[in-house]
UniProtKB/TrEMBL annotation:
Name under which the protein is recorded: 2-Methylisocitrate lyase, PEP mutase family
Key words, A-Z: Lyase
PANTHER family: CARBOXYVINYL-CARBOXYPHOSPHONATE PHOSPHORYLMUTASE, CHLOROPLASTIC, PHOSPHOENOLPYRUVATE CARBOXYLASE
Extent of Polar residues compositional bias: 33-46
Region annotated Disordered, chain positions: 1-111
Biased composition (Basic and acidic residues): 7-32, 75-109
UniProt GO molecular function: lyase activity
Amino acid sequence: MIAGGRSSHDERRPPETATHEQPRLADGDRADSNATAGNAPGSNPESRQERRVPVTSRRHVQNKVAGGETPTAGDRQKHDQEGRRPQKQDHAERGPQEYGLAEHQHRSGVDGVDVAPVPRAMLRDALISGDLVIAPGCYDVLGARVLEAAGLEAAYLTPFGFQAADAPSPHAPHDPWERYLDLARELVDASGLAIIVDGQTGLEGERSATERAADAFSAGAAGFVIEDRQGFGKDRPLRTMVEVGREIAAVRHEVGRETTVIVRTDAVRESVDDARARCESYLDAGADLVLPLMTRYLNYPDTPADRERRMSAYHFLTERVPARRIVVHSPTGRHLPVDEARRLGFGLYLMSQLLIASAVTGMTHELAAALADEPGPMPLLTPVDLATLTRVDRWLENRW
């Protein structure tokens, strides 16, 4: 039996009267979580190397401010770091409402200058609105602009797409985790999307969860994903619910309340019952959302009987776990219809490979058609439409 499997349910399973119906999206941190996280390695910002804080398009200050000076990225970083230190010192003394308000106000202004909405708060705000948030996997700025043009609010920085498209230049960091973070910064800077960063992808090396969370925070991530597997790799054993609970507390302490903490569980491979118990435990420990990895249910052929089996698993989960706090997933968004996910009340829908699968499929088919002097499978965008959607129209005006 895997570590933290069925035998560990009793030690962390909530009593029958426990409820998760009230989302933690605006709650303060628990005092016991603070105590745990305060002693977590890597949770003190002064013990870490200085990290870059991006000047994002959602947070660009006006070109002229009082006094004639424009805050620089360095000014922003200093303000950011100074603002976080007192927060950690008096965190346990604040009430839930006071903490959430102060955190949001601090992140929404720089040196008294009003700036655009904080990217980190965008996902939380979208989830609070009550509608299903759809976050396709995104791996470059072009894809982010396509998602924006489609009216979406969020994107998942897909490790699959990153690995497929990653081609580091000689001047790029040799560390793949640093390149992954650089891409996160680019997406935050170039788009108005809430970017979800995956913290357990095999790219992170030996970094602790708190270090990875701090990195994602500095990149402007609106969501951060951790897992209950021991490390990265196929069929890795699972950690106990107690261990994961401590990590949730440490990560929450690191990123504050605006960043949405998502915890993935791989326990479905054992049983949906195991997965449900873990989801309950992780929500109790302070996670905002839980992501039960349903891959075993996605591998079936898409017959009516298979769809019924898949939906029965989701219904079983929602008997004890609020649907609004469950993240559902499908590589290309075909395993669970969007209307059905919305009807069931799920909070977030990840379509991790939709963009890259569409891009590679389209390029392959269009190239084959062009080489054979045949019409393509669908009409291509006109040069004008393509320039407008990709935002190179201004460049074209100057060029021609």
